[in-house]
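Input record (Table S2, row 279):
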Amino acid sequence: MTTALHEKLKATNLKDHIGSKIGLSKAQLLSGEFAADIRELIEQRGVLVFPKIDFTEEEQVAFTETLGTMAPEMDGELLYKVTLDSSANVKADYLKGSMYWHIDGTMSKVPVFASILSGRVLSKEGGNTEFCNTYAAYDALSDDDKKAIEKLRVSHSAWATLFYYDPEPPLQKVQEMMRIGENNLPLVWKHASGRKSLVIGATAHHVLDMDHMESTQLLVRLREWATQEQFTYSHTWTVGDTVMWDNTGTMHRATPYDPNSGRMMLRTKLKGEESFEAA
Ligand code: OGA
Ligand code: MN
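Output record (N-oxalylglycine complex):
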């Protein structure tokens, strides 16, 4: 479907339910003139791709600033190095969890609105970034399912992701991750816009007040549902690409790549504007 908004942004859709490629020039993006339109389209499409836009570090920050208030990392950094190379990022370990479907910031009440990632150094194999549309996945559920999950709440934690990549971690590591805390969130996010999306992913540990096997089955079933082909887009990177996702209506993951490949992505983030508990 092509709309007036698509025409303005020179946008073409990548899949029916997710993703649009933007054809504007770097100068047009940096002018800020299209910021409101970009925000509108990303809420509709989940993911926007700016192929080979070749932002410098300063330009990536400047572009992000045109779109809203930036969310710095915990140590105040505006630009974050997404790499598994621990000599380039001391927290590289945590990023091992990024290879599993997740939403950024489920440890906060108000997660980041959007993340912007640019490809700097790529791995020879693997290392795609994949996205799924959790609005579209919710919408396509049966009415019975919608009703059954409507009021459920889920415990999210960073430590839940640890076991994905380190199945037999030392106790000290478990305790360190547990100190980050747990966050109980609604399974269905009722946005102020009236739309609803699923809040699941690797940080989702269990559904509160539910038998534990039933809880695991439900979370796995919803993950499987939301990540079906029709709701997903897999981005194969070219150096210089920038990809932006609406973190409030998508999940994402990196496909496996060699931790020693030197793969390096630079990330900026936009501050969250809506609590998981919104409406
Ligand atoms: C992230 C992330 C995936 C990737 O930056 O939040 O999950 O492909 N990145 O590196
Ligand atoms: Mn992430």
